[in-house]
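Dear colleagues,

For the upcoming journal club I promised to circulate an example of a predicted protein-ligand complex. I picked one with S-adenosylmethionine because it came up in last month's discussion. The inputs are reproduced below in full, followed by the predicted structure.
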Amino acid sequence: MVMKDYYSLSEASEILGKSKETLRRWDNSGKFSAAREPISNYRIYKKDEIESLLELFPVDINDSIDNFVVPLQEYKVLELFAGAGGLAIGLEKSGIKCAALNEIDKWACQTLRENRPNWNVLEGDIKTFDFTNYRDKVEVVTGGFPCQAFSYAGKKLGLEDARGTLFYEFARAVKEVQPLICIGENVKGLRSHEKGKTLEGMISILDEIGYNVVPVQVLKAINYRVPQKRERLILVGVRKDIDIKYEYPNPHEKIYNLVDALKKGELFDSNVPKSEGSKYPEHKKEILDMIPPKGYWRDLPLELQKSYMGKSFYLGGGKTGMARRIGWDEPSLTLTCSPAQKQTERCHPDETRPFTVREYARIQTFPDNWKFIGSVSQQYKQIGNAVPCNLGEEIGYSVIKFLNQYYSKSNKSEDSISLANAI
Ligand SMILES: C[S@@+](CC[C@H](N)C(=O)[O-])C[C@H]1O[C@@H](n2cnc3c(N)ncnc32)[C@H](O)[C@@H]1O
């Protein structure tokens, strides 16, 4: 390759191993700005800037996966069970506008309003809202409904049988709004809840209200630019009159680690800001002081293993999440709603303490400027409950791809109808 002072977009794309679309996006977002060729106004890249980017992200250039896609028109979502906005931020980053968000928790609602004063936050119990006025106003309905058992009498479950559950409320909203696509999000355990009957019931209810459910998948956040081993079950329903196949976002090849969450690098352009955080009680601190990075309770002397683990010691199973210290060179284990919670300790690699609020937020890929309102424990809860923003963004691209295909197809058939009428 001839070395010169500037490279074209295609050349930069080849050198960096990133698609042209990614480079355009990086330019638009300011992540990696291009200069402009004065006559053609095409993007050009300075040689030394390309070289410094290669030094900064040597591994990333191997990641050839890019789910980015530009929406053909404005798409809107009604986001239910919105929490502190993890999924909503991700969808917004992908280019989908939030028409409204429902959430019952007053602190989470304050978080949403503080950060996005223009978002329409519907505060209160979902049961008290009628969503019919969002019909024809949004293309997408999303929601991470808390999982509850249905009372099941062996028959095929219908919408009315699910009354009283939060899934019922999700399905009711979908029925009222009739979006082109709906996305439910839940814990991986939903697959095996009540031996799979709960999920089966949800699929049959969505079928009854006019939605075909795409084969359910559990997405691993580590495959979607999230430095955390979190997994989320995704339930996608496509309105039955639509003949477009929904495809899950492609998993990335690059896996990010704790160092990428907390230090300046590819995911964040600065080290994690200082913030409040909770502490371990003295006894737990003494135990965790003995654990090396990437280690867990098995690294304790045998007597301490027995006394710390109590009955769990004899129960078998790895329990590798207990008394765990995360290493810099691995993704974090799944964050929970409370960082000092028994049996799910995720200790900082160098200091014997839980992650701070801002470290928690980084591991969930929330931007540093996203403020959380409420006490420290309320903030941890909002963050621990969230869909990681980067996973939400990748899901967003998959939805945009689906909607783009739908509108290009329906515009084409409209064009052929008007052409036929004109002949
Ligand atoms: C798993 S969290 C959702 C997280 C969110 N999608 C995010 O990405 O940040 C579930 C949310 O449902 C909310 N919720 C529970 N019951 C509700 C109800 N009856 N009405 C509205 N929201 C409810 C909870 O307060 C919680 O914030």
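Two points we might discuss: The first helix runs from residue 9 to 16. The pocket of S-adenosylmethionine is lined by residues 81-87, 102-105, 108, 125-126, 144, 146, 166, 385-387 (CB under 6 Å).

See you all on Thursday,
B. R.
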